[in-house]
Amino acid sequence: LQHEKANGGYCVWVMGPAFTFDVQAREAFSKIVKAGYVQAVLAGNALATHDLEGALLHTALGADITTQRTQYNGHYNHLDTINKVRAYGSIPAFLEGEKLTDGIIASCVQCNVPFVLVGSVRDDGPLPEVYHDVYAGQDDMRSHVKQATTVIGMATTLHTIATGNLTPSYHVEKDGNIRPVYFYSVDTSDFSANKLADRGSLSAKGIVANAQDFITKIAAGLGL
To answer: Model's pTM, two decimal places?
Structure first.
């Protein structure tokens, strides 16, 4: 990551919602965004929904993101958050209107880091920015992975595979030099971490780790 930042690399992060369930993981990734190690975030409706729920109500899936204690009727919190965002019309308008500054999505908005949210038929809501048309969403994802020099997929098997299926194995730099695209897949299950390589993405390297611990250690390793 330090090499990529120093040499004008383009780091794409593919993220599942697990990071939003832990306050330290949210803070760690926010620091990584603000330090310039993130050029794009690819995710689904859930990551943004529960991250914004954390910013608004300090819960994710109804559980306090610091203590992990569930709240009475907390399972409605993400629905209340989605409805409030939809009432504002957009995520940036919601953040500004509610004066929210913490979390992954807020950090991306503050630092002008693009996030591509592609929905599924299972989604609640979804949020206004979520692509309903999977082909349009795929095109937006592809616009970022074409520029990517490093891709890191964390705690999302399906979204990581989807990104891997779009990602070239090499990157042509401005001076014409050809370099590999580094691709990492992080998950608690070795099956999930290695699935992308098993499907033919030969450059993908699986890392078996708890994603929340992984991201906090990455931030610490970068001195953040």
So the answer is: 0.94
